[in-house]
Design a protein that fits this description.
This protein has about 290 residues and is of the alpha/beta class. It is built from 13 helices and eight strands.
Length: about 290
Amino acid sequence: MSNARKLREVFAQEKTVVIPGGYDALSSLLVQKAGFSAAYLGGFSISASMAGYPDWGFTTMTEVLSVAVNAINVLDIPVVCDIDQGFGALTNFARTIHAYENAGVAAVHFEDQPFPKKCSQQTNRAVIPLADAVSKVKVAVETRSNPDFMLIARTDSKSTEGLEGLKRRIGAYLDAGADYCIFCEQQTEEELRDVADAFPGRVIAFVGDVPENAACCLPVSAYEAMGYKALVYCALGLSAAYRGMENSFGKLRCQRHISSDDLVENNTPLGEIQSLAKIQQWQTLRDRFNML
């Protein structure tokens, strides 16, 4: 079964699909280990972790794709991947759709921002004209060869066109063939509910990237009640890893010592990480064929 078909079945079986965000193969394996049905790789998380750059379109199509391929090669669950605005012009976008589908990515989401884009939590974002954004959706639909490969359109238009303009764009993208649309500019529960009511079962919410905004951190049950089809916790893996590493490195710097008790309490044993990285399967293969 293709990864795209796996994701379609997950969406068909689960009322609201919860998808945590990782930033590499190991973090995606932890998503799988926790029991989730799909993993997410976000542009911000990849740009920050792989290159140390902000989410301003610095990463290339092949750089992000290489992260996705590494995750796909070790996962049993499907991967949803952020492709920013497509890494360039419309022709670049078409190539990106083709490459990610062929690589085994189950779904991509793409923005209606111009190049270079900005992270959804940054101000002064611009969007391309509606007609151009609709053309991108149509190109994506025509480019994919497997109808199971999921196309998710994201709009960043609320700050410039208001909530009604945002809903107009979501409707246009769905009419053009997008499977789902992403809403990521929520400021109140009323806005979340308004968008979900307008497109029941067709909208995905970004969750938890701005903890000071209560509308970004509702329980899953609240989104289910509104009718959101999926929730993407975009940078959850990156932010958790950042805090953990910052604490450990800072403690070593200040105390000039990491005690055994501290390691037990705050760090994962290396053997457990090796197990997640499937060392036993590889050792079994070596033993079977008498490899060094």
